[in-house]
Amino acid sequence: MKGVILAGGNATRLRPLTWVTNKHLLPIYNKPMIFYPLESMVRAGIKDVLIITGPNHSGSFINLLKSGKDFNLRLSYEIQEDAAGIAQAIGIARDFADSGKMLVILGDNIFIQPLKENVDEFEKRQKGAVVYGKHMATVSKQYGVIEVRDGKVVSIEEKPQKPKSDIGQTGIYMYDNRVFDFIDDLKPSARGELEVTDLNNYYVEEGTMICKILKGWWVDAGTSFDELLRANLLVAEEIKKEKK
């Protein structure tokens, strides 16, 4: 299985910081944000990782990460010319995936749970997809809401008025090699983007989408200054624990 990290977007909610750099290059305690999804890939046993970013700061990623050998990874890079949605960005990985399965992590997702066991399990599945969810108190304000019955996902709704569960859709996914066919069939949403929730619902409709609930803490660090601060504090606390 190969890995894809999505590190594009305009990050307007983190301006003025992101006037001068990509949000995934901002520091989270003692490392750039992009290091955390890369380290998650390493812990998951992934060896080949594609980083997809925008054109404005792509050179900064290459200068920082180079070939990936410092992580024991083989890194590739692609450009998302326009911020046209998460599903559109995933579609850029078509050639890189080479008809194989993928672990996709949004680059501002910082979490503590290792994914290796789930990756090994997914490798054995014939077809389908996995979405990672997290129990959230205010789930419907900015996330897709996942409804699960008997271990399978039966619906994913984007920011519903009346959420059917408290499980929010995080930015961590696994897909089989049909994902690109589904992306080809997607139509832009009202905001002109190819939405990842619409993509995931192809698998929901055929009954092959499974939800894994993340254990431990998880932060969507690129959504606000408060979440960026929370990520810094959680990582700092984790490092202090390791030093004891």
From TrEMBL:
Reaction(s) catalysed by this chain's protein: dTTP + alpha-D-glucose 1-phosphate + H(+) = dTDP-alpha-D-glucose + diphosphate
| Coiled coil location | none
What cofactor is this protein dependent on? Answer: Mg(2+)
Which residues does UniProt assign to the signal peptide?
Answer: none
Q: Where is the Nucleotidyl transferase domain?
A: 2-236
Recorded hits in InterPro entries, A to Z, give: G1P_thy_trans_s, NTP_transferase_dom, Nucleotide-diphossugar_trans
Q: Which GO terms describe its molecular function?
A: glucose-1-phosphate thymidylyltransferase activity; metal ion binding
Enzyme Commission number? 2.7.7.24
- Pfam family of the protein (one): NTP_transferase
Q: Which UniProt keywords apply?
A: Capsid protein, Magnesium, Metal-binding, Nucleotidyltransferase, Transferase, Virion
Q: Give the family per the record.
A: Belongs to the glucose-1-phosphate thymidylyltransferase family.
The entry's protein name is glucose-1-phosphate thymidylyltransferase
Q: Which organism is it from?
A: Candidatus Curtissbacteria bacterium RIFCSPLOWO2_02_41_11
